[in-house]
Amino acid sequence: MDLYCSAKGSFCIFGSLGDSCIPSISKVWLFIPFAVIWTFWLFRNDIVFNAKWLDWLQLEFLVKFCLGSWLKTKFDHCPCWIPPPCGYAKLNVDEVVLNFNAKGGIGGVLRGTRGEILFQFSELCGLGPPALIELIAIKVGMLKFLESEWCDKFRLIIECDCKLVVDWLSMSATPPISFSSLVYELLRTIRERGMSVR
Asked: Which parts of the chain span the membrane according to its record (predicted)?
């Protein structure tokens, strides 16, 4: 199981960061059972009281998000996430895909200059490769930001962990023809609204 840290607002795989993200990997394992049980409990309540249906993909995403959030709170000195400068908000987005071209889920967190959560979202999305699902996550996050009260108060910085998508949206690489209409739609909004992508 990959472990993710939402310390940057989105997710970073511990394996790729080594031990620099948290003081001791052994302490992470203490959080996992509680994150799983807590998320199962909340998900169970949604099923029982709000007539939701069981979705394993969303449940997996929520467990990882819960674990990452708790680790961020516990190990606040984590260098993974840097707050945006004054006058900006940072939207961190990520995707989850079980298999290539399989059903996926997206999520994101908008944070202010002090790291406070302004809004967050998670939803299911259709089939597609991870890069496409990441683009969809950015689009959904941007639309939610533009519809929110924060749109008039902050300029937006978008962070995602897919270098390919960042390259497409910073125009340092050409997107494949199948993704180009979505990429150019996002680029148009990014330019018009003075947003930046990292």
From this structure: 24-43
Q: Report the pLDDT value the prediction gives residue 130, as an integer from 0 to 100.
A: 83
DSSP secondary structure code for residue 85 in this structure: P
The residue out of 74, 97, 121 marking a domain boundary is 74
Token pair of 170, please? 């910073």
- Domain for residue 81, yes or no? no
- Is the domain of 97 the same as that of 175? yes
Strand pairing category for 4-5 and 12-13: antiparallel
* pLDDT tens-digit series, residues 59-96: 787 787 777 777 766 666 555 678 888 889 999 998 88
pTM for this model (two decimals) = 0.61
> Alpha-carbon distance 166 to 9, whole Å?
16
Q: Are strands 103-111 and 117-127 parallel, antiparallel or unpaired?
A: antiparallel
